[in-house]
Design a protein that fits this description.
DNA polymerase, domain 1; Rossmann fold; binds magnesium ion; binds adenosine-5'-diphosphate; 6-stranded parallel beta sheet
């Protein structure tokens, strides 16, 4: 058996199982061996009084009350009994597992695995363990309906037994020795079959390093390749036009904006193709920076395009730019999926012959039919909302198009520089003068009514409000309120006096745009929404946001959401309704209530949760790592990057015997696109 063999070489894997495994991304034996557990369940017996709140624990004790079963509706049930552990008695509840009742009787000794709720001193049962099996430490894999936990376990075990010795090390031995990393084979074994938490921890340390290192090597190789193919569209702009544009603005640029503009202008006039990421907190004023870059391009007789993730945002940009550029007499056109066929037919030739200077739109901008005369600058707003291919496609519309990608995702600078490998990073780290920070208050759910009363007062004053609910589907596991439910409730509470709108992820793009548009035009006073509230959209009249179950969001995400209000000089408010269960949760709510600094908050989240705001990161368009978390594991990442740079800085590194395996591996795996 070889690592590259299909999983069908394993006993019991027929076509059907193979298809099911493919859905999990497992095609080869190698894929199977690097399909890592989602978590480990620790079945060693614990005492509740030594356990943390929310911890998964295994306890052993005697059932001392008659198990009682109650049903709610058709499908939901709760089984309750008391368990005596040493001299303490704890209530245990099992939800939606009515069949367990038959297995439990008063007086029985049982082993229960579940989540410990410290404040209520009770256990929420997950399963009853019949007897202690071999290891106390059990790997739990992500599964699907078709692939059961037991199946995947069995297959991994067999693959390892037959093929484990074929796992070779790509990472040069000197690096392994220096950082005391395990061999790849050892790593794989300890991740799947650890005998202690410590085993698994060490193995993950190696696996993370490996992953980051290989990623960094690819970025370095890309950089080396690009160095030779970097011809840029040189923008010889007229400084006079830039100054004139600045003088027409209703405000002075902040120092941070000016600095960033200078960086961009320097890039544009150089003969190196610009590839720059512009980071700036929500409301820091990225649009005007983009406008200045476009003005430079047009003053040099070339074209610029700006792409936004939604039609409504594209329209907003087109309107803004039209008024900003009114005095300069630039030609601006809007091109989106909603542009009529007739309008399109008229527009395309004008883009192709250079009559249009600035093209604003959605991804419709890079469709084949759209030809540009001389596209010197492509700007991608809210770049994390686009896939790699979409970003790439726009860039390729011009032979040597300069690229400016903009994002509000607050990533610490070192991280951004590392992650966006071959991009330069500019940061706007200052808010415009006179902006009033959003006043944020955290209240427990018992105060919901007074929060609504506050909101009502704002509505009475002619303002609008956002109401954020976390999830659209009802989830049994987490008790989160449902957007639709809240919508119905609010309709009852506020109409007919005030209209209420709904926006959620299951709606089509058109429906979402429509809801946003209606809210913007004041058709609704209240918009109930999930986290899909459009990024970047300015509804200046909305000055209140209420967020339900706020403790279920990451701090960065809360900060982004809150950025939808407070977009004018008027005072805006954000009310967080949350009942955090522990001190960390409370600390998080206090942090977001007292700070409006996105960077500070993302760091704080990292500190408090031991990991970054994963949602925020995932949205930022970063590559998906399998085991490493680029925020939580930033130290490992930095070391891996440094080592990769060190290797590639040497001449002929590919030919050194140390690096033979590594180079071979990289050459055979050039699928990643990190751009
Ligand atoms: P974002 O960075 O989130 O895209 P925008 O570009 O939409 O932010 O800017 C938010 C608001 O701030 C806009 O109404 C814009 O006109 C205004 N603005 C931008 N720069 C300044 C400034 N230097 N002084 C005052 N207002 C500004
Ligand atoms: Mg914006």
């Amino acid at each position: 058996m070889e690592l590259t063999d299909s999983v069908t070489v394993l006993k019991g894997v027929g076509d059907k199982t193979a298809v099911a495994l493919n859905k999990l991304g497992i095609n080869s034996i190698n894929d199977l061996l690097t399909y890592y557990p989602r978590r480990y369940d620790d079945f060693s017996i614990k005492k509740p009084d030594e356990s943390m709140d929310g911890a998964k624990i295994t306890v052993k004790g005697q059932i001392v009350s008659e198990p009682s079963l109650s049903f709610f509706g058709r499908k939901r049930s709760r089984l309750r009994f008391l368990i005596k552990i040493d001299d303490e008695t704890y209530p245990v509840s099992f939800f939606n597992q009515p069949w367990l009742k038959k297995q439990l009787e008063i007086g029985d000794e049982k082993i229960v695995f579940g989540t410990f709720d410290a404040s209520k001193q009770q256990i929420n049962g997950i399963k009853i363990i019949s007897k202690q099996s071999g290891s106390d430490y059990d790997s739990i894999y992500p599964t699907t309906k078709e692939v059961k936990q037991a199946t995947i376990k069995k297959l991994i075990k067999e693959a390892y037994e037959q093929c484990g010795d074929k796992l070779v090390d790509f990472i040069p031995q000197t690096i392994r020795d220096h950082y005391r990393l395990e061999s790849f084979r050892q790593t794989v074994a300890n991740i799947h079959f650890p005998t202690s938490p410590h085993d698994a921890e060490l193995a993950y340390r190696t696996a993370k390093f490996d992953e980051f290192f290989l990623f960094s090597m690819r970025i370095q190789m890309m950089k080396l390749q690009k160095r030779n193919s970097n011809a840029a569209s040189i923008v010889t702009y007229q400084p006079k036009v830039i100054d004139e544009f600045k003088s027409t603005l209703a405000f002075e640029l902040t120092t941070a904006q000016n600095k960033v503009v200078d960086e961009i202008l320097a890039d544009l006039e150089s003969d190196r193709r610009m590839n720059r990421l512009l980071q700036g907190d929500v409301g820091s004023g990225k649009t005007v920076v983009a406008a200045l870059a476009m003005a430079a391009v047009v003053s040099a007789g070339k074209q610029a395009a700006i792409m936004a993730p939604t039609e409504i945002l594209a329209e907003q940009h087109a309107n803004n730019l039209a008024s900003m550029f009114a005095k300069l007499g630039f030609n601006i056109a809007l091109l989106t999926g909603a542009t009529s066929a007739a309008a399109r037919k008229q527009l395309l030739p004008r883009i192709a012959n250079g009559e249009v200077d600035i093209i604003v739109g959605t991804h419709a901008l890079f469709q084949d039919a759209v030809e540009y005369k001389d596209l010197a600058l492509a700007i991608i707003d809210e770049q994390h909302r686009f896939g790699v291919h979409q970003r790439q496609a726009l860039k390729e519309k011009g032979e040597a198009t300069n690229v400016l990608a903009m994002t509000a995702t607050p990533i610490p600078r070192t991280l951004a520089i590392t992650m966006y490998g071959d991009m330069d990073v500019s940061i706007i780290d200052q808010m415009p003068n006179g902006r009033k920070p959003v006043k944020t208050t955290w209240v427990p759910s018992t105060k919901t009514n007074s929060a609504l009363g506050f909101m009502k007062k704002q509505l009475d004053a002619g303002k609008q409000a956002y109401v954020v609910a976390p999830l659209i589907e009802e989830s049994d596991a987490v008790d989160m309120r449902n957007a639709t439910e809240i919508f119905e409730k609010f309709k009852k509470l506020f109409s007919p006096q005030y209209q209420v709108g709904l926006l959620h992820g299951q709606m089509t793009n058109d429906e979402k745009d429509q809801a946003m548009q209606d809210f913007k035009q004041g058709k609704f006073a209240v918009l109930v929404a999930t986290t899909v509230i459009e990024v970047g959209v300015d509804v200046k009249n909305a000055n209140v946001m209420i967020i339900f179950d706020a403790d279920h969001f990451g701090l960065s995400q809360l900060h982004q959401l809150r950025g939808r209000v407070g977009r004018s000089s008027e005072q805006a408010y954000c009310v967080l309704i949350a009942d955090p269960k522990n001190e960390i949760g409370k600390e998080r709510m206090r942090a977001i209530s007292s700070s409006t600094d996105g960077f500070f908050l993302s760091q704080k989240d990292l500190e408090l949760r031991g990991q970054g705001d994963i949602t925020g990161l995932k949205q930022s368009g970063m590559p998906d790592f399998k085991v490493g978390d680029p925020v939580a594991d930033i130290n490992i990442l930095n070391v891996a990057v440094a080592e990769a740079k060190n290797i590639t800085s040497k001449n002929n590194w590919q030919k050194s015997p140390e690096n033979v395996q590594l180079f071979k591996y990289l050459k055979s795996n050039q699928t990643i696109n990190t751009d």
